[in-house]
């Protein structure tokens, strides 16, 4: 069997959903588990809905819900032009369920409420796609992932219970009376059947989990880009597509902030040696990128740009060394404020961390650090990471930049720079 994942962009309109049908016709015989995300920007919209609900903003809630319903209804109307088609009723039923949920009072737990509301995006998208494909003659079964993927109750960042999920997934995805399942990405549930989510952009991870458990031959993530590029075209001219990347490189690129693959996706695949293809849903004939257990002789440099960085310098007040005890305090604060360190560097009497400038978090972190240390910081910086760097790649990114800090580790270099404007 194989696993496909269709993300938000690949199903953002009726036309896009029709294209999913076109792609699936190319695989008439394969057993496929298809993981689907919410349509277009629906998860963002559902987050707003959940936020209005929790804070009891009635008017805004109604408006946002109506807007989301209209968005989906227009797609459904185009896919099922016959007003008598039974799916219209089913569609109304799902929004009826959501409405019922929103009529209840919110709890005191924001993350819990979030997980009870936001997954409707995936529930709706999978229902639409499953019904549409069946209508087209691409026979498939809709399956509720919550009966297969079990997690703990850390809402919004739930951790998978692997042994239980393995047992249930094998039982449920048996392929006995269908060759195709359509299911939700990003969603799981506790052993008490309370819905949970796996963190934003978690659908890639869902695809990897299913592939791991079901020992898929390969996984394909269908995207609006031709594959994994060596840099984000937003910041960089003349990008090239990487034909092949090793698991190791994929993990490193995701870790340093390349946004193409969700960092959690690689491990379940690497552990079972399952190939991952990143392919364009617009040009399905093209090769895309293969991620797998690979080696290559030509190393193409990749560039990752993290903007809006702040560099914080932490030094003891009394000119003493930065030693293990100070590090423990610093890490304690970093952990407390949920900050991700993009780069760190220490000298005898100072410790520097480069983090993304999420203003509230950074303010709180600095406030705490100032209890124990002397702090100075610089904002408005960029962090450039180059994997497989050489002097010409450094020259290329340093044009019109002032170097603030530089660190190399094996084949990676990280440069904290300021744009000279
Ligand atoms: N729909 C979810 C999100 O946008 C999960 C995903 O797309 O991977 O975060
Ligand atoms: Mg998405």
Please describe what this structure looks like.
The structure is a single chain. The chain has 421 residues and is of the alpha/beta class. It has two domains: 2-216, Carbamate kinase (3-Layer(aba) Sandwich), CATH 3.40.1160; 302-419, VC0802-like. It has helices at residues 14-25, 42-54, 58-79, 87-103, 110-117, 120-136, 162-172, 203-214, 247-255, 266-271, 324-336, 359-372, 391-398; strands spanning 2-6, 32-36, 141-142, 180-184, 187-189, 195-197, 218-223, 244-246, 275-280, 289-292, 302-316, 341-346, 351-356, 373-387, 401-409, 412-419. Helix 1 links the parallel strand 1 (2-6) and strand 2. The radius of gyration is 24 Å and the shape is globular. The structure holds aspartic acid and magnesium ion. The site of magnesium ion (MG) has 5 residues, from loops.
